Task: structure prediction
Amino acid sequence: MTSPLRQKRRLETAREIQKATLELAMKDRLEDITTEEIALAAGVSTRTFFNYYPNKEAAAIGLPPPFSQEDKEALQHGSGALSADIKQFLDKHMEVLARDEAILRIVGSILRSNEKARGILAGFLAGERESLTDALSYRVEDPQSAATLASHATDAIGRAIHLWEQEENLPLAAALDIVWQGLIDASRLLLLPAD
Amino acid sequence: MTSPLRQKRRLETAREIQKATLELAMKDRLEDITTEEIALAAGVSTRTFFNYYPNKEAAAIGLPPPFSQEDKEALQHGSGALSADIKQFLDKHMEVLARDEAILRIVGSILRSNEKARGILAGFLAGERESLTDALSYRVEDPQSAATLASHATDAIGRAIHLWEQEENLPLAAALDIVWQGLIDASRLLLLPAD
DNA sequence: TGCAATATTTTCAGACTGTGCAAGGAAGAA
DNA sequence: TTCTTCCTTGCACAGTCTGAAAATATTGCA
Result:
């Protein structure tokens, strides 16, 4: 059994390595940095680096916050309008993401140019989406609709981050508001009959 | 200038290499195959392999068909209900994908377990999504809605393929129909007020 | 405190990936 | 044919990642 102290230390080291990775990646592109440099900067051996992350792209992404169990349950048992409840769920998650804006920005820029990093994040998001689908299945009978909504939700987060990266002085929460409105409008458009 | 003949030869070789990659990947997992083995099986040198694809994951994915320019223009200038026109656009694309069902199935299974491959495909899809967003911008004023719809569209394709992989005897086109219906239903759910 | 058990980090060796470069070969153009 | 261009190849080399075992550090407990 791993003691809580050790788990905490592990998380700290993981974060140290991510920090070192991102700092180096701000000067050079991630591709031009070697794992050796990162390990050196983080103060661990190369082998230890690989004990924490399978590759430097994963190190750059770090350990993104998963959807909160509590929030998922709240969504599951919510009784408001579905769209309002989902929006609230996303707001909560955005709040968590906003705690590490600096990291989010750098990771975002890396994701834009690095396919491998995108793939790793996509894998993580697929898992999150699945867990969200499960939660939504309690409120939506049709599995396809539940899956669609979960997909819309993770998508909205991604697009909100994208918008926030582009627009100076637009807070994350506000970016989500805009994206969300776009989603609602798009839904309306999809239900519109021909002119 | 590259002569048409050479371009054709190049495409053929690219396909040969993909074929060799997929054949080997059907026995072993892609991770356990070396580029050397693939090159040998494809009858080219390792160095040539890397002239065609930057890595074995890209070789497995090959050159996925992009959205047809013609179809995008038809969507752009279409005058039917937006949802019907998008659906038709997707139907057309699915038809193209269905021409290589065998490859699609193997690639699908690889994508499920291989992050790097996912990343490569994600990058490709991001480009396609962008071009679709441009096309939709002619019919939808709000950029967010256009981006949302484009995202929904590529998403639907992905989910349709996923469904088709799971359900025995469900044609690709039928899978898209189901997924699309889920999308429409989800749109309706999002516009619903609280109970 | 100090020992034993356990977890972590490091060292080392080695297989595999991916690129630059220069030589050789094949197809198309003149 | 001869020239040109593109493609393929072999070779060398830097970098990635893994397995195994030795060296350290941490924890729980006497």
Summary: Chain A has a mean pLDDT of 95. Chain A is about 75% helix and 0% strand. The CA atoms of residues 57 and 115 of chain A lie 9 Å apart.
